[in-house]
Each structure stands twice: as structure tokens, then as C-alpha cells.
Amino acid sequence: MSWPNLTENKKLRDLTERAVEAVFLFCASVAVLSVIVITIYIFAKGSPAIMKIGLWQFVSGTEWQPGAEIFGIFPMIAASILVTLGAIVIGVTIGLFTAVFLAEVAPSNLVKVFRPAIELLAGIPSVVYGFFGLVVIVPLISRYLGGPGNSLLAGIIILAVMVLPTIVSIAETSMRAVPLSYKEGSLALGATHIQTIFKVIVPAAKSGIMTGVVLGIGRAIGETMAVILVTGNTVLIPKSILDPVRTLTANIALEMGYASGLHADILFSTGVILFIFIMILNIILNVLIRKKVG
């Protein structure tokens, strides 16, 4: 091949590389720009209403009466925190042990059955989860534990199942990524298989496991349709796990269709509070992850 042809090929490759890099930059910029635009829009729509009512009164108020222009979202904040916390406690416990089973304990033929079944959970629409909870879980709670059935407990159970695929998938991948030499070294020193799993493999994979937990929390706190169907949607601070509740996301979805004026602006304000809450939660969890990894 002649020198002119080599030069032309090199120029073509360089041009192709720059074009591909430009496409990547454009895609990344669209993602970042989308976040910025959404953030600005939500704060622009919701902040004036918060300033009009007062931040403290809005966040700490316990009554929600749009007709009387009384807007207090503390019961919904409490409900969102409690339902997410309960779902994560159950989901992380079951998800972590399931990931350990798939990554280290189960034979390959069982893994081929269990893994697709768990991954299938991620593809089920949230409204189907909510409908299942409404016709199965809610009546069971009402029959055996009392109360109306539509409750904080029903929301916790449904969300715990919904976060399982995320936690299991990421935790299993993280554990399989741990170098085999770690496991071999632990076994060579006399540790049992179970001791090796929980004292070597799981700690080595904790960064990935925590990432799965963070994503699971985001899924739980942002869920709307399934929560609407099973929690009862009553604006009150729950005194029992069997009490009906309303979360922040459910409140926005239920009332945005007919809200107008200050009421509609307040729903955007609810979105602002939810946005800030999720940001703070992600920052805290990321800091904890970095400290543990470090």
C-alpha cells in the first residue's frame, strides 16, 4: 500500500474517531441537560408556592385540605420514609441472601431457573404489582391482621418485591466479580465456605451491593401506581403498620388531574420536596459508600 493511501486511511480513522466521540458527547450532554431542565422547571414552578405558604408550615403541617388552602405534607413525608425504609429492610435482606445463593451456593441448573425468574420481576409493570397487592395481599392483611387491609404494611410488601430484581442482579454481579484468589486464599487458611462468603466475598463486593441498595431505594421512593392501589391514600401520620397512608408521589398523581391555581402549584412544590429529599438521600449514601470502600 502506498504512503498516500496510508495517510488517507489514517485521516479517515481519525475523522471517524472524532465523529464517534462527538456522538458520545452529544448523548452525555442530552442526559445532563435533561436533568438540568427538569430541575429548573420543577423549582421554578414549585418554589413560589412554598414561599407563599412558608417552608416550615408546608413541610411540618399535618393537615391537607386543598379546598381551604391548607397544605401540610408532613404525613406524606412520614409515609414515604416509612414505606421506603420497610421495603428496603425486607428487600435488602432477601435480595442479599438470594444473590449469595445464586453466586456461590446454587448449582448451575438451579441458577438457570432462578435468575430468569428474578429478572422477570423487573419487567412486570408496576400497575400489575399494585393490582396483585389489591386483590391478594390487602385481603390477607385485613383477614389475618385486622384493619382495612389497604395499609402501610401492604405498601412495604409490594415495594419489597419490586426492588428485589435490582438488588439481586447488582449484588450477584458484584460477588461474581470478586477475584477467585480471595476465595481460594480464605479456604486455604481453613475458613468454611459460608465463612468465606460472609467474611471475604461479601465485604469485597460491598461497593456494588451498596449501589444496588441505592438504586433500590430510588425505585421504592419513586414508585407511584402500585402504592396508590394498596396503601389506602389517607393523609394521616400512621400510628400502626396497619394504618392507611399516602406517599408524596401518590399525592401528586392523585390530585394533579383536577388541581388548579395554588393547588396545582403546591403539587409542584411537593415534587420539589421529593426531589430535594432524594438528592440528600443519594448524597448521604454515596458518602457512606466511599467511606466504606476507602
Description:
The radius of gyration is 24 Å and the shape is globular. The chain has helices at 3-53, 55-60, 74-105, 108-123, 126-144, 152-176, 180-188, 193-204, 206-222, 225-230, 248-255, 262-293, and strands spanning 64-65, 70-71. Helix 3 packs parallel to helix 6 (152-176), helix 5 (126-144) packs across helix 6 (152-176) and helix 7 (180-188) packs antiparallel against helix 8. The chain starts with a helix and ends with a helix. A two-stranded antiparallel sheet has the order 1-2. Helices cover 79% and strands 1% of the residues.
**Secondary structural class:** mainly alpha
Low-confidence stretches: none
Percent helix, as a range, is over 70%
Global geometry: globular
What does the average pLDDT come to?
A: 88
Tally the helices: what do you get?
Answer: 12
Keywords:
two-stranded antiparallel ribbon, mainly alpha, about 80% helix, single chain
Secondary-structure map:
Blueprint: H1 3-53, H2 55-60, E1 64-65, E2 70-71, H3 74-105, H4 108-123, H5 126-144, H6 152-176, H7 180-188, H8 193-204, H9 206-222, H10 225-230, H11 248-255, H12 262-293
Antiparallel strand pairs: 1-2
Helix pairs in contact: 1-12, 3-6, 3-9, 4-6, 5-6, 6-9, 7-8, 9-12, 11-12
Describe this structure in a few short sentences.
With 294 residues, the protein is mostly helical. It has twelve helices and two strands.
